[in-house]
UniProtKB/TrEMBL annotation, chains A, B:
Keywords: Cytoplasm, Hydrolase, Metal-binding, Nucleotide-binding
Described function: Nucleotidase that shows phosphatase activity on nucleoside 5'-monophosphates.
Domain of life: Bacteria
Protein name as it appears in the record: 5'-nucleotidase SurE
GO molecular function, one term: nucleotide binding
Top enzyme class: hydrolase
Cofactor, how bound (note): Binds 1 divalent metal cation per subunit.
Origin species: Caldithrix abyssi DSM 13497
EC nos: 3.1.3.5
Pfam families from the UniProt entry: SurE
HAMAP family named in the record: SurE
Family as reported in the entry's similarity comment: Belongs to the SurE nucleotidase family.
Keyword match Metal-binding: yes
Length: 256, 256
């Protein structure tokens, strides 16, 4: 069998610890290319860069990690990587390991997930991996599990335009209870803004907020992670609200 | 009945012609607040600004258009508008009128749609409106239709977390044939990058590409607009691939 070609990316930037651990864990699983943002691009959603030129810089870390840094978003990295850097369309795109959970409503703001989504739209199986802590830098279980899941996806494939969104709890490995296949929750942040005055007497605002749990059940991504379990949600990109389509037709909307 | 409170936003920026036409058409329909990006924010996806402070500038155009400009994304405008600028949670958020179609895969890159999505997530009925031309600046039908649809939505409401994504063909009003309730298509761009050398001998890339039609049928957003019809797609933000959930459980993924 031909060696699989794997594109590794993230949204925390090419110098983040999570992508280093992920790349190391994948060594031997295929031909690996790292194409990642030059700087952190968190909460960029599914942004692409249309109005600025993209540049690629070759980066080496610790003499054993080579990658291509792009001055753009995670989705840019996948597009540019597949078209201009890799020798052919990859067999798998894996994005992460993100520092901070990408569950519930956060999925739609996530640069990590958007990179995987971009791959899925291009017809490439894709996985997004996050750990549920912004500070704890212990990626070894998440990295090893990513490699295992990558192998399964390379073997079995994924349905059209589907991403596996993986979230690993931020606890020691021996406390992780199990793997649960989940749905995306509705939990979101109740926003607040911290209003401040700068030294020049101008008002500015910081976005802040409190996390709200809006689901119950044993199959919801954010709740599962809080129970020290690994969550895997299959996500897709047809946003149509099919259950409301027929009802909306009955509105009988006319032009005038 | 209390006058409805309406937040008007967009992604082309507060100085774009589309938001001016939209605001004008909505006058009399309720108490209107314009909160929009200070500069153009196209293709930003569902980005939010976490790492920079947000600032608000009061803007007046032509002595008859007053609004609040935010140095952030469309989603930022909705969050900040609802929490810090409007006197209460609005009854409707309407985003547009965007110059360029937001159909098929483009929906997930769209700042216009992301503003409406942000509102829907906050529990506010929301509409996104685009015209299918990047150059033609004729918004009068789209603006009038937006007002009509806004009235219907204010009266009937929308299901939880649902946005109406409206796309108007860029043809004279008399050539528009009808209104069609649609689903989101799979059409996407086949990406290409234009590789160039800058005056300092450095390589850079422009994202470019060719639009691909990947559907057929009379109920697909991008195809309907190409047939000179108005497309209205109800979209929602649970990305779970439910049809693959059970299959994925059978993979029986273990921790080691």
């Amino acid at each position: 069998m031909k060696k699989p070609l794997i594109l590794v990316t993230n949204d925390d930037g090419i110098y983040a610890p999570g992508i280093y651990s992920l790349k190391k864990a994948l060594e031997g699983a295929g031909d690996l290319y790292v194409v990642a943002p030059l700087v952190e691009k968190s909460a960029v959603g599914h942004a692409i860069t249309l109005s600025d030129p993209l540049r690629v810089t070759e980066i080496e870390r610790d003499n054993d990690f080579f990658g291509y840094a792009v001055n753009g978003t995670p989705a840019d990295c996948v597009k540019l990587g597949c078209k201009c850097i890799l020798p052919r369309k990859p067999d798998l795109v894996i994005s992460g390991i993100n520092q901070g959970p990408n569950t519930a409503t956060n999925v739609i703001y996530s640069g990590t997930v958007s990179a995987a989504a971009e791959a899925a739209i291009m017809g490439i199986p894709a996985i997004a991996v996050s750990i549920a802590s912004f500070t704890r830098q212990e990626f070894s279980f998440a990295a090893r599990f990513s490699r295992k899941l990558a192998g399964m996806v390379l073997e079995r494939g994924l349905p059209e335009r589907t991403v596996l969104n993986v979230n690993v709890p931020a606890v020691p490995e021996e406390e992780i209870e199990e793997i649960v296949i989940t749905r995306q929750g509705k939990g979101r942040y109740e926003e607040a803004f911290d209003k401040r005055i700068d030294p020049n007497n101008r008002v500015y605002y910081w976005l802040t907020g409190k996390r709200m749990i809006l689901d119950n059940g044993n199959d919801v991504d954010d709740l599962v992670v809080m129970q020290n379990k690994v969550s895997i949600t299959p996500i897709q990109y047809d946003l149509t609200n099919y259950s409301f389509l027929e009802e909306l037709k009955k509105w009988n909307i006319k032009m005038d």
